[in-house]
Prior knowledge:
Chain A has 204 residues and is mainly beta.
Amino acid sequence: MPPEISLPASLQDVEQVRSVRTPARLDYEFTAGEASSRFLKGITQKKIIGQRATPESRVYVPPRGADPELGATTPIEVEVAQVGTVTSFCMVNVAFYGSVMELPYTSALILLDGADLSIMHLIQEIPADEVRIGMRVEAVWRDDADIEPTLESIKWFRPNGEPDDPNVRIPGEDHGTGLGSWVGGVAPTEALIRNPRTGEGGQA
Amino acid sequence: MTEQDAGAILSAPLIIEYPFKRTTGPVIGAFLTGLREQVLVGSKAADGRVIVPPAEFDPVSGEDLTELVEVGPAGEITTWAWVTHPHEKHPLDQPFAWALIKPDGADTPMLGAVAADGIDALATGARVTPVWAEEREGHINDLTHWVLEAEGGAA
Lengths: 204, 155
């Protein structure tokens, strides 16, 4: 119990303050760098352009300018498809500051055809609880007049009507950085998820 | 890497903001309530000193401090520093002073911004009075700044 406080007469009959705003705010000028700038310029032409280090190495979307496996720059540009597969998702049921989405909604990792790295984006035009791993989705762009150099120029992804991909790869799972994978056509449940560091769990 | 002209690199404003709220507890809450009501309060320590802004614990014994008393609101500058070039986040956009101000009846000073015509208008020991925001919500900014009593402050 907090101690009893005695107030001066002037404050005895007014409503007491119980909480106070203490916002933390940082103003930056963000410089995208060369790789992201090239990617975002592709977006203004409604193209999704990844980068790779060699003709055989992984295609990174969005590109960050380097291949972390090879330790090499990624000078080769590759346009990837605007359709892909959901590799993971999260249904959002809690409102947070700054969010304009109607609840519930689903945010997903989407592995675009031709890419080796998932991008995170919204899934819409389907009830949130029907989104699933392996679902095939396509990009939905803003109106042409509203296209800007931002990934938000893609409004969201929606189901494209193709059957689910039961063999969807989780980027990285084949070399020890993934958190789970489809095993024998079975979705990664908690019981099946393999610890990539120890190799425990799941079905090797 | 190929040569790129500087215009090829994109940049944009990036603002990161966390809209934190924190609970005040009864002592700081009373201080902020006072600001909303245009009243300054301090806490009475075991040795009789009045601490402003109020402290939750006695600085000597560590005991709970529970008696809040009204001070000021006018007071006296105990020390100060002149700001020649105000920062955009400062409370005043003209040159001003950050000062420690001891409200009448208090034994400790509190920090505040003092508006003055110039560095020569200020002195340690000068009398100042608070200027309150028109709309107050129980926040430290309810007391926007201080002015010299001689210059339009309620003497």
